[in-house]
Design a protein that fits this description.
two-stranded antiparallel ribbon; Wheat Germ Agglutinin (Isolectin 2), domain 1; 6 strands; 2 domains; alpha+beta; His-Me finger endonuclease fold
Length: 177
């Protein structure tokens, strides 16, 4: 039988969390310390100190699930995640995204579909050069996927366009006969 692993509070204090008893405010039960998150770690007189949260891990997870279900929190979380995504992926601030969107009249550069990011409309994707990282513009989902499927290759896109024009011309003559 394997010996259970124990976490150390702050990895410095060396307190065995299985031997610590703590009361959970969420479920009104007493549990061992390993059932709680370490809330904070900070230096106090030259040493690290860890604090166990007031809610056990299960109650904490339940609280987070409840809060993310509310409409206010959904909006807040999605806005935060989008801003963070822009910054992490493209180094783009929300104001810069908004400026590009304004310059494009709030529409996809290729097809002209509106994408203001309001509740009823989807946000436009940031089109960028995968080699240099340079931002080229904002595209709707379909146009962004289309460019990606053709590997951002203008030659392949022209061949596809020629193919479609040829097929459409043949279909028109077939209908006229």
């Amino acid at each position: 039988m394997k010996k259970p692993t124990t976490k150390k509070i702050g990895n410095v204090l060396g307190i065995d969390l299985l031997s610590v008893a703590k009361y959970c405010k969420g479920c009104d039960t007493e549990k061992t310390g390993d059932k709680f998150h370490i809330q904070k770690q900070r230096k106090a007189k030259g040493r690290l100190v860890g604090y166990l949260s007031s809610l056990c891990k299960d109650c904490h997870a339940s609280e987070i699930r409840k809060s993310r279900k509310s409409e206010y929190d959904k909006e807040r979380w999605s806005g935060y995640r989008f801003k963070q995504f822009l910054q992490d992926r493209y180094g783009l601030l929300p104001d810069q995204y908004a400026e590009i969107l304004r310059n494009q009249d709030g529409k996809c550069v290729i097809c002209g579909m509106s994408g203001s990011g309001e509740k009823d409309k989807r946000r436009l994707h940031v089109d960028h050069d995968h080699e240099t990282g340079e931002i080229r513009g904002l595209l709707c989902n379909n146009c962004n996927n289309g460019l990606g499927r053709f590997k951002d290759n203008p030659f392949l896109l022209r061949k596809a366009a020629n193919y479609l024009e040829k097929i459409n011309a043949q279909q028109e003559t077939d209908y006229q006969v």
